[in-house]
Each structure stands twice: as C-alpha cells, then as structure tokens.
Amino acid sequence: MAFSYQDVVPWGRSYDEYVAMFSLTRADLARDILGCADGPASFNAELTRRGGTVRSVDPVYRLGPKALARRIDETRDEIMSQLESERHRFVWRHIPDPQALAQIRLSAMADFLDDYAAGRRNGRYVLGQLPALPFPDDVAELALCAHLLLFYAEQLPLKTHVASVKELLRVARETRLFPLVDTNARTSPHLPPLIDELRARGAKAEVVTVDYEFQRGGNEMLVIQRGGQT
User: Fold this and answer.
1) Could you tell me if residue 45 is inside a domain?
2) The 3-state secondary structure of 6-18, one letter per residue
C-alpha cells in the first residue's frame, strides 16, 4: 500500500457519533464488533463499559499511551485551525460550532486514553491495518470502518478498496463504511466501481442514509454483506 498511515492525524470520535454514523441499533450493539481504523475514538471504551464485545484495530496502536497522547496534543491545534477556516464545509446541526466540536472530540480522546493501556493488555486494541488484518476468519459479526475507505479516495486506489473490503468480509459477515464522500466532501469516485465489484463477487452492497451529517454531504453509509464468492 503506497498510502502512509503516518500522515493520518489521530482524531477520535465519540460513542454517540459512532452510533449515529453507523445507525447502530440495540441489536447491533449486542453483536461482536470489530472497529477498523478506530484510532483514539471512545467507542470501544464506552461500549465495553456497557457490556458490549468490541475490538479495535489501527496502525496508530503501535504507539504507547504517552506517545499517543503526545501525538494527539501535537495535532490538535492544527486540526482546530483547519476546522475554523473551513467551517463552511461542515453541517453544524448535531454539533453547534467548532468549540463544541473540540470539547466532544477531546473528551472522547481522553476517554480512550484512560482505557487504552488496559485495552491493549486484554486485546481490545490491536495493532494492524488494511488490507491484511491480524485476525482469523469470522472473528466478529459486524465490522465498522469510519473515515478511511472511500474517504481517502486520492491516496487509496480502487484495488486497495476492493482488497480491504474483501478482508473485512473475511473477518465479519457484515461491514459498514462511513462516509461515502472523500476528504473534499465529494462523493467518492471509488463508490460505484466498488459496489459493482462487490456485487459481481456475490456480496450485497447497499447505500443507506443515516441520521448524522457533519461533513457536508456525508450522511450515508455503505452496508455490505458477505456473499458466496467474496
């Protein structure tokens, strides 16, 4: 993979954002879940406290707690500055303004950091990255991947998307990708050919509208279910 994950800034989303982004029902949250490219999101920590079963996998987990906390501190001001200057690209409905966003995301990342050391020890935070995950077949019932596939359309070619989704369907019968727009808030150019390729392999792939939109136009997810040839 030519794309370097070193360039991805750690910016974690909250449990509530995950539930909204992926339209997670009570039944979904009771399934064995794999979060791919979770970074410092608080979804794992909060769902674990609620009695759920979840693993997160990300290349940033090569960093220890102190190093990852430093990395978050180093990138925080840069991210907030970009959000302020590009605020017209976002929908301030669920989150009213950049200051509220900072509070939500910093709180989520603090929650993650409080849980990170223990989660690494018990196997809930696993070092790895697509398109080759360090898990056996069917390790989870539902895989979630936010702000990586389709989002980094310029950096990740279509063949990497196909290989990555095939890998996600190896480890979980159902995969959900969010959002379906790229970093410039345009519908990802990989979306139509990815759907065509998946359907040709016998998988079910459906675009589903969700009740969450922060990046303008980013209110849809792709729900993919394993088929016989995937």
Assistant:
1) yes
2) HHCCCCCCCHHHH
Burial 89-102 (b: 16+ CB within 10 A, else e): bbeeeebeebeebe
230 in a structural domain = no
Question: Is residue 50 situated within a structural domain?
Answer: yes
Q: Are 161 and 124 in contact (CB under 8 A)?
A: no
The CATH number assigned to the domain holding 175 equals 3.40.50.150
Query: Residue 89, Cα to own-chain centre: how many angstroms?
Result: 20
23 phi-psi bin (left φ>0, alpha ψ -120 to 50, beta other): left
Residue 129 lies in a domain: yes
Task: Read off the pTM.
Answer: 0.93
Asked if 227 and 201 count as a contact pair (C-beta separation under 8 A), the reply is yes
Instruction: Give the helix ranges, DSSP H, for the chain.
Output: 15-21, 26-29, 43-49, 65-85, 98-121, 158-171, 191-200
**How many H-runs (helices) and E-runs (strands) does the chain carry?**
7, 7
Rounded to 5 degrees, what are φ and ψ at 215?
A: -70, 130
Tell me the residue length of the chain. Answer: 230
Q: Decide if 125 contacts 12 (C-beta within 8 A).
A: no
What domain count does the chain have? 1
Side chain identity at 27, as an amino acid letter?
Answer: A
Task: Provide the residue range defining the domain that includes 91.
Answer: 5-225
Q: DSSP letter for 59, please.
A: G
Question: For 9-56, how does the pLDDT look when each residue is reduced to its tens digit (9 = 90+)?
Answer: 678 899 999 999 999 999 999 999 999 999 999 999 999 999 999 999
Residues 88, 95 contacting (CB under 8 angstroms): no
Nearest CA to 205 among 169, 167, 156, 163?
169
